[in-house]
Amino acid sequence: MFVSDCLDINNDGHLTIGGIDTTEIAKEYGTPVIVYDENSIRNNCRAFVGSIDKYYNGNGRVLYANKAFSCLEMCRICNDEKMGLDVVSGGEIYTALKAGFPAEKLYFHGNNKSYTELEYALRNGVGRIVVDNPEELGNISEIAKKLGVTANIYMRIKPGIDAHTHDFIKTGQIDCKFGFALETGEAMENVKLAISTENVNLKGLHCHIGSQIFDVDPFVLAAEVMMNFIIDIKNETGVVISELDLGGGFGIMYTENDKPVAFEKYMKPVSEKVKEIATQNGIPVPFILIEPGRSIAGAEAVTLYTVGNVKKIPDIRTYVAIDGGMTDNPRYILYQAEYTALCANKADKPRDLEVTIAGKCCESGDLIQENTMIQAVEKGDILAVLTTGAYNYSMASNYNRVPRPEVLMVKDGKVRTVIRRETYEDIVKNDV
Ligand code: LLP
Predict the structure, then answer these.
(1) 208 alpha carbon to ligand 1 midpoint, in Å?
(2) Would you say the CB of residue 211 lies under 6 angstroms from ligand 1?
(3) How do residues 24-33 score in pLDDT, each as one tens digit?
(4) pLDDT tens digits, 367-395
(5) Rounded to the nearest whole angstrom, what is the distance from the C-alpha of residue 209 to the centroid of ligand 1?
């Protein structure tokens, strides 16, 4: 029944995370609250870092895609685990620097980085800027010149791969706001432009084919397309690209319908393809980067809510209202994302009641899950939604002026706050 190894049921029949009773956590910290298991996050980091060692002799780097869940403590953990960070905004760069993260291990993505953000990145020595469009290339060159530095850049390439996932999170195809298209010649044209641009050093290429992908084939195909492009660049310009960032997107388990593939299963065939093409063409195997986000943090957290009213509409459905909703988890309203929910204080009981979990916002669509099976839930119960570690807090809002929840981490039997609960004072702090 469980989507993550960090979850279990104790002798009282309560859901535990990292061995700690979630109902006790709810009592002490209040709800809604998001609780991460730190050891599981670290295990995921180590699995990815270990696979770079194993399949590329350590000639590569794992970047945590910070957008999945960004805060000071996550940056510290990733630094500790010898990873880099994929950052997509001035705010994410600021968070990382504030956490003491080495700037040279920050990789700056985004389809519309502002001049100010680029300047901020270059002034602070951000390691790589992933160029999305020619205007940005011009801005980077201008700023680098002004600062008397050379910017190390990647080019974001659309490899044209359909990774069979939700339309909103498909980013490898030609009709996509990110990067340069291969098939139209746009990518080659801009690579040539980058090579001839002053104050920039074209270090590598980047692609990201989508998110929550379970198939191995699209990753292998993306690696093949990107390696072949590296060969084309060498043939046309003589320049040998030495770094290749293959993005993230590895799928995780939200419900029993999801069948995640072990990381190794992606890494092995992808690395074989990369090495095969490098060997065949007599170029060194590039320094490889991968950018897992969801697969680092997603399954390693639960959100705990207190159940308010339970509204039975005869012959239609039963609404279970909780004290959070789309403000802490907008993924159902955005993507109809599936989740596993259960009653944390009745976790050992059968899930034999069909309910719709409704948030507290003044919005009919504010639902967390429709027609899902949970235990016979009553007012005052603690409802746990599993796999809420990625793209929940990071996409949270203050709609209806609802304060964002507290975020906790558990480790070795101890609980600590990593993001404080917002107060009403926080809600008005920017109002004038
Ligand atoms: N690298 C790049 C360039 C990305 O754009 C992303 C995610 C990742 C890595 C990490 O992908 P992951 O391993 O987490 O799948 N808000 C959506 C997901 C948006 C993904 C954005 N880019 C959701 O909640 O499903």
Answers:
(1) 8
(2) yes
(3) 999 999 999 9
(4) 999 999 999 999 999 999 999 999 999 99
(5) 9
Q: Measured between alpha carbons, how far is 221 from 166 in angstroms, rounded to an integer? A: 19
List all residues 6 or more positions away from 127 whose beta carbon is below 8 Å from its beta carbon.
84, 103, 104, 105, 106, 107, 152
pTM here is: 0.97
Cα–Cα distance, 167 to 202 (Å, whole number): 31
Q: How confident is the model at residue 1, as a pLDDT? A: 52
DSSP string, 62-100: EEEEGGGS--HHHHHHHHHTT-EEEE-SHHHHHHHHHTT
Rounded mean pLDDT of the chain?
96
Domains and CATH numbers, the chain: 7-37+298-428 (2.40.37.10), 109-292 (3.20.20.10)
Model confidence band, residue 132 (pLDDT cutoffs 50, 70, 90): very high
Q: Is the CB of 295 under 6 A from ligand 1?
A: yes
Contacts of 69 (CB under 8 A, 6+ apart): 293, 297, 301, 389, 390, 391, 392, 393, 394
Q: Which residues are catalytic?
A: 362
Ligand 1 pocket: which of 128, 211, 244, 335 to mutate (most atoms within 8 A of CB): 211
Kindly give the distance from the C-alpha atom of residue 112 to the centroid of ligand 1, in angstroms, as a whole number: 16
Token pair of 302, please?
């639960």
Instruction: Select from 156, 73, 165, 37 the least CA-distant residue to 108.
Output: 156
